Amino acid sequence: MTFARIRLAVAALAFVGWLGWLALAVRQKDAPDKVSRAQLTAADTILVAEVAAGSDGLPLPKVVVVRSISGTGPKVGEEITVANLPSAVVPGKGFLGAGQYLLPLTGETGVYRVAGLPRSPGYEEQANPTLPRIYPWTPEVQAQLKNLKYEW
Questions:
Q1: In DSSP terms, which residues pair with 135 in a beta bridge?
Q2: Domains in the chain: how many in total?
Q3: Can you list the alpha helix ranges (DSSP code H) found in 28-87?
Q4: What is the CATH number of the domain that holds 107?
Q5: d(CA 133, CA 16)
Q6: Residues 116, 38: contact at Cβ < 8 Å?
Q7: Which residues pair with 99 in a beta bridge?
Q8: Which structural domain range is residue 66 located in?
Q9: What is the rounded CA–CA span in Å between residue 96 and residue 123?
Q10: In this predicted model, what pLDDT tens digit does every residue of 32-54 receive, in sequence order?
Q11: Does some domain include residue 152?
């Protein structure tokens, strides 16, 4: 075997290994939910709310505040309306059903929306995202918030 063939075999093996690593890295089905730091910075209020599911399996816009993480938004126990919540998804998973969710919100009192992503180089601000991101209130999400120095 010539030196050129050995180099080709090593390059092909490295390429296949790289593709395998990429396939493993993007596998989201069993991955823990990753909270978007950019979305948290775009939010005026971050809270945990009890979200109910409608008969169509989508989240209902009326939620009850369970915990306030940051901001001067609604108080615990208050029922609020989140306008774009019915189109919200857990990244890579869709809506998981009724339960407690972390909601990064923007808006004035009485008119809330799930926050989009702030402006980034090469991207415009997503003030009204088509599929806003919400996160189930799991120990993994709580640990991520603690690492980001949020207290509740």
A1: 102
A2: 2
A3: 37-42
A4: 2.40.50
A5: 33
A6: no
A7: 51
A8: 37-147
A9: 29
A10: 678 888 889 889 899 999 999 98
A11: no
